[in-house]
Each structure stands twice: as C-alpha cells, then as structure tokens.
Specification:
The chain has 338 residues and is of the alpha/beta class. It is 30% helix and 20% strand. The radius of gyration is 21 Å and the shape is globular.
C-alpha cells in the first residue's frame, strides 16, 4: 500500500536488495496512480487502485499510505488472511497491536492479531542506542532534540525546499535582514520557509504545547522499551536536509556509565555503527548516513551536569531504517516463524 510514495519506492528497492522471498507482488496506490507502472527485479508491474478487495491471496501487506488509509483498509486485509506491517501512526499506540523494532523487541511480534505497527522514524533510530544503554546501565530519563530532514514529510516537501533554494540562489547576495526570505505564495508544504531555515515544530501542536511528533516519541519509546513510566521529553525540528534524521539525546542512567563503557555497549549492539573520533572531527552526519541501513552514533560523552548522564548523537536514514527497512525486517521475522 502506497507503492508510488517515497517509502513505497524504498520498499521496492529494499525487497530487491534483500532478496525477499516473493511469489507475487501486488502494488497498490490511490486512483491518482492508476495506469502507472513500476519496475521490480527488472520487470514492470501495473499499479492497482487500492480497494477493499485488493488483498485476496496475499500473505503480508506492507502499508505506507497514511493513517486514514490504514484504518480503512487494513481490517479488510486481515479478514482476507494477511498479516499487515503498518508504517503509519494508525495503530502504534493500540494495546492490541505490537509496536516493533526487531533489534529491540522482536518477541512482541508473536502477539500480533493481524497488524504489527512500524514505529515513527525518529523513534526507531533512538530506541536502538537506548536499548544498548539500558542493558548496560538501566534508564532513568531521556531528553531528545531531533533535526529531521524534509523527506520525512514526503516527496512534495523535498521539491518545495529545492524551489526555494533555487529562487534564493538567483538573488544577489546580501547580508541585510529579509534578503534570504521567499514570498508567502512560495510556502505551501510547511508553515514557514524551509530553505536556509529551521522550523521548530513537526506535525500539529497539542493542548500540552508539545507537537504530535514529539508525543509520538514519548509514547512509542515507552511502549517499545516496555518501560511505561520512563520519563521522556522531546523537541522535534525540521531542517533543510534531504535525507536522514539527526538526534541529540541526553540519557540519565540508573548506574554510572563511562564514555568508554557506553561506546563498548553501543558497538556490541546489532544495527548500530559507532563513529566517534572527536580529535579527527569524525562523527555521524546525515550526508554520510543517506542510503545506509545502520543507525550511526557518535559525540558520546559524559554529562557532568547530572548524575549518571550520557550525551549521544544519533543519525539514520529515515526512509530506510526509519521506515522501509524496519518494516521489512519485521516481515522477515514473520517468514522465519512460519
């Protein structure tokens, strides 16, 4: 579901990369994509319009068509006998639906009732290092600040950033205030200009003055780590970067954890690559994480302002591990359990 979207494209390329066992692939999208053809393993496939009866004979549904579509169509897929891995927010906090990052809580998969939720991209990349640290020293509190790429909001948002950058690059360079702004009619995808700017909110604001994205990180982290009362707070920021989200995370542990012990714990955890050589200016950056599967961690250092504090910097490709890869890993676990 959502075969023609940004995550749908990643699904197709990663299914091919990982040689996922497929007898038949069915590409589903909205009526806007009717007539399109997509290439998978060198063969063209017609995109079909998503309907209630689209799921006959299907074993696994990979869904990335938005929450409203998932709520509408996944019950029909389950009734048809499929197991659904849903990339939307529709079922993440449903007590009956497992929320899974395979490196962290693969045991939760077995409790599914036809739907398994794929977490939010910013949550996925954070819980891997959090679980590594939890195993080493326990968790007491988590403070996260995210720097999320425009691709997390869809392909149209990438194009808007590009249009704004091109518009501003044609202007004569000045240092005056306002010279690096675009007109209001050139701002559509975001509430504000994204080119050469940061927007300190993602998704809608809630009554508690946090955004929906920030509260996703709070609730999902607790659910995945199975620590329902873990103190977690987040600030999520949209940045003018194409791909890969970055996060500055401050972790307070139950027991003292030195920088060296933290590095050892992180290096030994599946799906994590540590890049941490401050003397040589080596640390994870979005431009290096783009197109890669691992979660990259660096800038690891003890926080002297609080007991048992550790600061870490986390970067991951939001369309791969933050979306398509995690969902496909869940599907691989399903197949292994058959």
């Amino acid at each position: 579901m959502g075969a023609t979207g940004a995550v749908g494209g990643q699904f197709l390329s990663m299914l091919e990369e990982r040689d996922f066992p497929i007898d038949e692939i069915r590409l589903l999208a909205s009526s806007r994509s009717e007539g399109k053809r997509l290439v998978f393993k060198g063969k063209e496939h017609d995109v079909q319009v998503l309907k209630e009866d689209s799921f006959g004979g299907i074993d696994i549904v990979l869904a990335s068509a938005g929450a409203s579509r998932s709520k509408e169509f996944l019950p029909h897929a389950v009734n048809a006998g499929a197991v659904c891995v849903d990339n939307s927010s529709a079922f993440r906090m449903d007590k009956e639906v497992p929320l899974v990052v395979p490196e962290v809580n693969p045991h939760a998969i077995s409790g599914h009732k036809g739907i398994i939720a794929n977490p939010n991209c910013s949550t996925i990349q954070m819980v891997l290092p959090l679980e590594a640290i939890r195993k080493a020293a326990g968790l007491k509190r988590v403070v996260a600040s995210t720097y999320q790429s425009v691709s997390g909001a869809g392909q149209g948002n990438i194009l808007e950033m590009e249009r704004q950058v091109m518009k501003l690059s044609r202007k004569e360079s000045h240092y005056g205030i306002g010279e690096h702004s675009v007109s209001e009619d050139e701002i559509k995808a975001f509430d504000h200009q994204i080119a050469y700017n940061l927007i300190p909110h993602i998704d809608v604001f809630l009554d508690n003055h946090y955004t929906k994205e920030e509260m996703k990180m709070v609730g999902e982290t607790r659910k995945i780590l199975e620590i329902p009362d873990l103190p977690v707070t987040a600030t999520c920021v949209r940045v003018p970067v194409y791909y890969a989200h970055s996060e500055s995370v401050n972790v307070q542990t139950e027991r003292k954890l030195s920088r060296e012990e933290a590095i050892e714990a992180l290096k030994g955890f599946p799906g994590i690559t540590v890049i941490d050589d401050p003397g040589s200016s080596k640390y994870p950056m979005p431009i290096d994480a783009e197109g890669k599967d691992d979660v990259f961690v660096g800038r690891i250092r003890e926080d002297g302002s609080v007991d048992n504090g550790i600061n870490i910097w986390i970067v991951s490709d939001n369309l791969r591990k933050g979306a398509a890869l995690n969902a496909i890993q869940i599907a691989e676990h399903l197949i292994a359990g058959l």
